[in-house]
Every structure is written in C-alpha cells, then in structure tokens.
Specification:
The chain is α/β, with parallel strands linked by helices. Helix content is 45%, strand content 16%. It contains 20 helices and 15 strands. It has a 5-stranded parallel sheet with strand order 2-3-4-1-5, sandwiched between helices. A 5-stranded mixed sheet has the order 9-10-11-13-15. It has a 3-stranded antiparallel sheet with strand order 6-8-7. Strand 10 and strand 11 form a beta hairpin. Helix 12 crosses helix 13 and helix 16 packs antiparallel against helix 17. The chain is elongated and about 80 Å long. The mean pLDDT is 92.
C-alpha cells in the first residue's frame, strides 16, 4: 500500500466499516481527479475480494456498449478467481456470477470481510442496460443479508450518484449504510503532498499553484521537482504540449451527458466573479429556464464546479451561481484568453487586467474554501457561523458598496472581511481606510444589524502598521490558511 496523504476523516470511517459486524454499502463520490479510486484502492488493496472499473463512455461507442461493459466485468471476475463461465448476457446474470465468486470466498474464510469495489458506476449504466435494477437485486436479494459483505461503489458523475444511488426512489431507497463525499485537498494537505513528493515550493508559490489547480491530487501528481510556478504552469497548462491541454473538454464529456450545455454555462459564469442568476443564465445560454436548466445547474453544483449562494439579507429568488473550481476558473479566465487570435498584447494592458482580476477572485475563493482555518485564526473554531457575500448597488440614498465575505457569528459579532492577494505586506492607504469605513456604515444602515462589526484583513504576508492600519480588528495571514 502506498502512502495516503491526508484523508484522516475518511480513513477513520473505513476503520469503522471494517470493524462492523453487519453488511455495509458505502458510496464514495466527488469531482473527477479528486483521488477517490486511489484512496479506496490503496487502503483496501491488501484485502480486496473483487475490484472492477467501468469502461469510459468516451471510449465505448456504438451498439456494443452493454456487451463491452459486461465483457470487461467478466475479465475482472476471472482476475479474482472465477473460472469456466461465458460472458453474461445481462447485468442480472453478471451479478449472479459475482455472487458465486463471493460465496466461494466466504466458504473458504467465513471470518474475513469481503471487500467489493465497483468503480465508475455511472459509466456502467448504459442506455437500456438495466444496470441499476440488477445492482438493486444483488444487494437487496443477497448481499444485504451477508454480514461479511462490504460493497463500495464509486463515481465521478456526482449527479448520477445522487439521483440513482443516494436518493434512489426504487429498490435502493434507504439502503445505503454510509456515504463519503471526497473533497479536494486543503492547502495543508497540498503542502503534505508536496513534501511527500520531495517538491520544494515556498508557501506563497504553493498558494499560487493552488489558485491555478486547486487541491486536485491528480493535477498535483503531474508536478515535477525543481520547477518554478511559471514552469509548472507552462508544463501543465499553457505550453504547446501541456499535460492538461485537453483536460477541460475531457472532464465535461466524461461527466455530463449534456456536456455542451454545461460548458456554455461555465463559460458564461467565468465572465463575472459575482456570477449570475438562473434567469441571467437562461437568457444568455438559451437553455430553457425550466427542468433542463435546473437539473444542469444541480449537476454542476454537485460536481463542485459551481456554487449557489445568496447575498446577505436578500431573498432566495435572487440566488446566484459562480465558479468555484480553481482549474476551470484559471483555464477560462487566463489560458483560453491567451490562446485567442487577438491576444498579441496579452502581456500588456489586457493581460495584466485579466490576471489581476483572476488573482483577486481566486484568492477570495481560496479564503472561502478555508473558512475553518480562518475561524481558527480568529479564535472562534467552535462558534457557529454563516458566510455570505453582500452588495449595495447604490441609488437608494446610499453609495454603492460590496463585501465579498461576511462571517456572521453566533457570539453576536459580524466579521467584514477584506481579502488582499499581495506579494509583500499589505499597506493600508487613506483611501482604503475611507472605503472600509464607508462599507461598514452602509452595511449597518441598510441591514440594520444589531451585532458588533469587526473588519478583518485576510492577506498573504501581513499588514504594515501605520496610521490607517487600526481599521482592522485582526489580520489573518497566508500561514493561517495552511493550518491542518
């Protein structure tokens, strides 16, 4: 077994399941490339009784999709010891063969847990295949009555997992015993990954790479020793032979049946950091504002590409969607724009403006993803909080104002957060002081909040003390975001 970086909560859950005296049906899901297969395979490989991975629909075309999946399943059955059987004609027969294999293993060692790992489950559910019905029959008709069975299913198409397995209205309703959604690494886990690989990068460089790649283990695994941030970016993203040059399209084709609609939405959302309402998206993309768009937005949200949020004090009907996947945001904001025919002056005015805008939003997104670390730095790790964005458009007797992160605390305090990505200590100018005071005043008068207001600064290297720096009640620095 190779070393597993981070993932402590998931490993503790695995230990509980192995110690269980009842049959277990575990669902592991999350964004593609987030490390689901690696985690399950590496932890359970010494005791794996059966492991199969569905064939990618990108590679299986035509009328032979069902046969190809069944044929691949047969190969896995033979690999784990089943002999002398033809390729099953359907999934009911295929799961009966798996039942035969596991029954033999249980007879040989009745005390051993039989770990069954079926990976990329959504790929196996080809049209008119009856796959989900067969899985239901396998679990309800046999496996759920066998204490030695530990069935683990996994998939990157998170919306499929949600609809067909976790929230199944048929035979699998309320049958799942445990579920784990695997999230990208935090900055702390990313730093552990770099150290394990012998990659030397200062935290500022790690933060820059995180803003480009996020905490996706597969992307991080492609980084080689001795590279700078610019070299890594060219090697993986911007160079002619970049390792991830086709990644965006491959991601969406492999995850979504309506990948073209998904890409339309994602490209539109990339044009503004605040994102857009569902109505805006429907008007721009021409995707009807009904069930189709609702389901597509749900699928993108569940796969961790976008996030739905509301402004502080605004009604639910004004919900907005924004991109939260770092790789996708960087690709659409920077990489694709560089490749456009009219990008000859990229390194001049246009390029600098785009880079500044992307860096500001990417750092804000890093902060949002590390709310737990920010709370620790503020000394409130156990205080219940809610997080919001807030904006006043102006024109209502108050000047316009925007706050990109509000932490509303149960201890009767509201933190108004200023997030500044800088290559050195941040210096508060007179205009900054006036701007923050204006935001606070407008926020208090419009929202009529009764809590104490504490402006805080979240930045990279800290705050230079001067006559204006006292506007901030506390400063959270980059190192705080790396806390485990």
């Amino acid at each position: 077994m190779q070393k597993i970086i981070g993932r402590e909560p998931e490993i503790q859950e695995f230990k509980k399941i192995l110690a269980s005296r009842k049959p277990e049906f575990l669902v592991v899901y999350g964004r593609r490339r987030v490390g689901k297969t690696y985690l399950v395979r590496e932890y359970f490989s010494p005791i794996m009784s059966f492991h199969h991975t569905g064939l990618s629909p990108v590679e299986v075309l035509g009328d032979n999709m069902i046969f190809s999946q069944l044929q691949a399943f047969s190969v896995s059955l033979r690999t784990y010891g089943l002999r002398d059987f033809p390729v099953p004609k359907d999934w009911i027969s295929a799961f009966e063969l798996l039942k035969t294999l596991l029954t033999d293993k249980i007879k040989k060692d009745p005390k051993k847990k039989q770990v069954v790992f079926i990976d990329e489950l959504p790929w196996m559910d080809t049209p008119r295949s009856g796959f989900v019905t067969a899985l239901e029959h396998f679990w309800n008709g046999w496996a759920s009555g066998i204490p030695q069975i530990m069935l683990i299913v996994c998939g990157s198409a998170t919306s499929w997992i949600s609809d067909k397995i976790l929230h199944n209205k048929g035979g699998l309703y309320n049958r799942i015993t445990r579920e784990i959604k695997l999230h990208p690494f935090t900055l702390h886990e990313t730093e552990l990954f770099y150290k394990d690989r012998g990659i030397s990068l200062k935290r500022y460089a790690q933060l820059q790479m995180y803003m480009r790649l996020g905490g996706i283990p597969y992307y991080l695994s492609l980084i080689e020793k001795g590279m700078s941030v610019d070299q890594i970016t060219e090697y993986l993203l911007t160079g002619k032979e970049a390792k991830l040059r086709d990644e965006l399209d491959q991601l969406f084709v492999s995850l979504f049946t309506n990948h073209q609609d998904c890409l339309k939405i994602i490209r539109f959302l990339a044009t503004r950091k605040e994102g857009y309402t569902k109505k805006d998206i429907a008007q721009k993309t021409k995707i009807p504002d009904g069930g189709g768009l609702t389901n597509t937005l749900k699928a993108l949200s569940e796969s961790d590409f976008i996030q739905k949020y509301t402004f502080y004090g605004k009604p639910q009907k004004e919900e907005r969607y924004r991109i939260v996947d770092f790789f996708t945001l960087y690709w659409l904001s920077i990489v694709e724009k560089k490749k456009q025919p009219d990008s000859k002056d990229w390194k001049d005015k246009t390029g600098k403006k785009a880079m500044d805008a992307w860096q500001g939003f990417a750092f804000e997104s890093v902060c949002w993803y590390h709310i737990a670390q920010i709370k620790k730095a503020l000394g409130i790790p156990s205080v219940n909080t809610e997080e919001f964005t807030w904006r006043n458009e102006g024109g209502n007797d108050f000047p316009g104002a925007q706050i990109d992160l509000i932490i509303r605390r149960a201890d009767n305090v509201i933190n108004l957060c200023e997030m500044k990505f800088y290559s050195s200590e941040y210096i508060t100018e007179k205009t900054d002081d006036a701007n923050i005071r204006n935001k606070q005043a407008v926020f208090e008068r419009i929202t009529k909040c009764k809590e104490t207001i504490h402006p805080i600064l979240i930045t990279t290297f800290g705050l230079t003390q001067n006559q204006y720096s006292d506007i901030f009640q506390k400063t959270v620095v980059m190192d705080d975001l790396f806390v485990g």
